[in-house]
Amino acid sequence: MKLASTSGVTEPELFVCVDVDAAGADSLVRIASGVSREWLPQERISATIEVTFDEQTDRLAVRKRTRFDDLVLDETHAHIADEGEAARVLAAAAAERLEKVLPPPDSEAGRFRTRVRCLRAWLPEAGLPAFEAADLRDLLEHVARGRRSLAELRNGPWLDLLKGQLTYDQSRTLDREAPDRLEVPSGSHIRVEYEEGRPPVLAARIQELFGLTETPRVGGGRVKVLLHLLAPNYRPQQVTDDLASFWANTYQQIRKELRGRYPKHSWPDDPLAAEAVRGAKRRPG
Fold first, then answer.
1. How far, CA to CA in Å, does 277 sit from each of 17, 107, 231?
2. Torsion of CA 118, 181, 136, 79, to 10 degrees
3. In this predicted model, what pLDDT tens digit does every residue of 232-249 receive, in sequence order?
4. How confident is the model at residue 274 (pLDDT cuts 50, 70, 90)?
5. Whole-number Cα distances in Å, 219 to 120, 168, 195, 252
């Protein structure tokens, strides 16, 4: 809407349109009457702080808007006054953009979620939560409190909230039957990598597994761990879920190939009777 050049009203902040030409793309006001804000009935003027979600920045936007009935007289930046309202607005926006706010799969919370979902499939009688997208939507408002953007939400306290959904007995079952790390004969606690629909993976140097006769199992003994057996340079030499077969049939060939390249590392004739070690062989005292 534009004021015509012939209009006598040019400076008032507010005006009433008396004669309007709406034929073009922009309405042209031929005649207007200026209005002073002091003339407006005070009981019909209100000021509110409004929290909205800005899709351009993926952040909350906060404005103080002064209105005469439904007409916005002015607006300014403001600070959030109601954290509960802000959390609800951010959570509602996040619910429609879950891929932007769920914890990344390689984060602590993401790994925890995957472990729970894997064990739920392997051990259904444990009654673990599914942690489907709908379940996580219900947690959004808790995560959103005190946060202002989707990025902050993604980095929120997801791990604590997810852990809080498990009972004490379920937590113990998870740690026992789908542990984050497994202890190997060398004494190292090595992280197990979980992926839905696939066996869990443990990558360890061969020397750390000396003396281990059977493939580790998880999920109440129902699921074999897939072993990535590594050379001293941490490159895989064998992938197997049958450790006994590896010792009996493959180890001697790998020993023959690698002991010349890595003479400082232990390559015993009998790996089941040897001491597991984390690094190179100890020098004689």
1. 88, 30, 13
2. -170
3. 999 999 999 999 999 999
4. very high
5. 9, 18, 14, 31
Q: What's the pLDDT tens digit per position in 177-207?
A: 999 999 999 999 999 999 999 999 999 999 9
Name the residue ranges covered by the structural domains of the chain: 1-39, 98-177, 181-258
Strand order of the β-sheet with 201-205 is 181-183, 189-193, 201-205, 226-230, 236-240
Q: Which two tokens stand for residue 191?
A: 């992280």
Phi, psi (degrees; rounded to nearest 5) at 86: -60, -40
| Nearest alpha-carbon partner for 212 in 235, 244, 241, 237 | 244
In degrees rounded to 5, what are phi and psi of residue 170?
Answer: -65, -40
Q: What pLDDT is attached to residue 24?
A: 59
| pTM exceeds 0.90 for this model | no
Q: Which of 169, 177, 182 is nearest to 212 (CA)?
A: 182
Select from 252, 280, 257 the least CA-distant residue to 186: 280
